[in-house]
């Protein structure tokens, strides 16, 4: 009989290697990357907010400029036939009920009449014309007309700014009248106050 073979000897098991510990440098770089992403996100949000604010302000500004046409239209209506300021004799003196001054009003460094900039100065000047108010749009329009003369009374080349007929002057409306070769210049200034206390000033000049 053949002897039975001996069972194979068990292999020696090698000791398991523990995984190497992760280096702390990788965690540090990851944290830095997250911080940089957060900073970039905050900067992007702030930039977007600034852009929206600027766009909103420009929209308000554009709307207020359009609203100023109401003041100009009111002034032109008072200067046309049937209006309170149609007569040249009437325009030789102040007419506070129509926000009209027969002499040049004091202006600020931007050429805006001081009484239009300051509500207190407006009240002190005694201007009595009603503001144009649109409660729905939240807009208030205030206007003033001043003749560019050093004093009240008849206009002349000595005491008034004169616009000669027949000359092409941009931004000036010439209304021809018989018997005159030169006309005094009138300044129309309009202040529009809108939402968020936004204000816009518009000016125009006419001669008549």
Characterization of this structure:
This is Type 4 fimbrial biogenesis protein PilX N-terminal domain-containing protein. It comes from Actimicrobium antarcticum. The protein is α/β, with parallel strands linked by helices. Helix content is 32%, strand content 20%. It has three helices and seven strands; from the N terminus they run αβααββββββ. Strands 1, 2, 3, 4, 5, 6 and 7 form a seven-stranded mixed β-sheet that branches. A hairpin with a 4-residue loop joins strand 2 and strand 3. The longest helix has 56 residues. It starts with 23 loop residues before the first helix and ends with a strand.
Question: Which percent range fits the helix content?
Answer: 25-40%
Secondary structural class: alpha/beta
Low-confidence stretches: 166-180
Helix and strand run: HEHHEEEEEE
Q: Quick one: overall form?
A: rod-shaped
Number of strands: 7
The gyration radius over C-alpha positions equals 39 Å
Distance between the termini: 145 Å
| Mean model confidence by pLDDT | 79
Total helical segments: 3
SS strand fraction: 15-25%
How does the major sheet shape up?
7 strands, mixed
Protein name: Type 4 fimbrial biogenesis protein PilX N-terminal domain-containing protein
Organism: Actimicrobium antarcticum
């Amino acid at each position: 009989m053949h002897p039975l073979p001996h069972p194979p000897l068990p292999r020696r098991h090698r000791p398991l290697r523990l995984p190497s510990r992760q280096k702390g440098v990788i965690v540090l770089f990851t944290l830095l990357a997250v911080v940089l992403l957060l900073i970039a996100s905050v900067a992007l949000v702030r930039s977007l907010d600034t852009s929206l604010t600027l766009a909103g302000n420009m929209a308000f500004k554009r709307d207020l400029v359009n609203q100023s046409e109401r003041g100009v239209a009111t002034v032109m209506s008072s200067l046309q036939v049937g209006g309170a300021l149609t007569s040249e004799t009437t325009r030789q003196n102040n007419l506070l009920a129509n926000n009209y001054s027969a002499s040049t009003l004091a202006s600020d460094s931007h050429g805006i009449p001081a009484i239009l900039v300051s509500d207190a100065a407006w009240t002190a000047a005694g201007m009595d014309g009603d503001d144009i108010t649109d409660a729905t749009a939240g807009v208030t329009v205030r206007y003033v007309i001043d003749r560019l003369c050093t004093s009240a009374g008849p206009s002349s080349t000595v005491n008034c700014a004169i616009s000669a007929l027949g000359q092409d002057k941009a931004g000036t409306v010439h209304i021809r009248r018989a018997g005159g070769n030169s006309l005094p210049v009138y300044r129309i200034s309009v202040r529009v106050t809108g939402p968020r206390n936004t204000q816009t000033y518009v000016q125009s000049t006419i001669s008549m």
